[in-house]
Amino acid sequence: MGVGCTDGEGVERNWSMQNALSGSTKKMGPGSRRDTLDDHFGDYNWRKTISIVNHIRNKALEAAKL
């Protein structure tokens, strides 16, 4: 009891989606590369934040049925 569940695969999912960037960022300087990666990770996090609303709604509806 008192133990939470952890999704250790979450980080891997994020990186696997960003692998396509490697070709674009390969020849960039360190500053440009970091800015590009920050933009893409920021976009990924924003989309995840927005989509959580539907996830929470669906979980609430599911819980209400019980």
List the helices and strands and how they pair.
Blueprint: H1 10-18, H2 22-25, H3 30-65
Region (Disordered): 1-38
Pfam family, one: KDZ
Biased composition (Polar residues): 15-25
Description:
The protein is mainly α. It has one domain. The longest helix has 36 residues. Pfam families: KDZ.
What do the pLDDT scores average to? 84
- When the domains are counted, the total is 1
Q: Distance between the terminal alpha carbons, to the nearest Å?
A: 23 Å
Based on CA atoms alone, the radius of gyration comes out at 17 Å
Outline type: elongated
Output the helix-strand order.
Answer: HHH
Number of helical segments with 4 or more residues? 3
Low-confidence stretches: none
* Helix-strand category: mainly alpha
- In percent terms, what proportion of residues is strand? under 5%
Please give the share of residues in helix.
Answer: over 70%
Q: Main beta sheet: strand number and arrangement?
A: none
Number of strands: 0
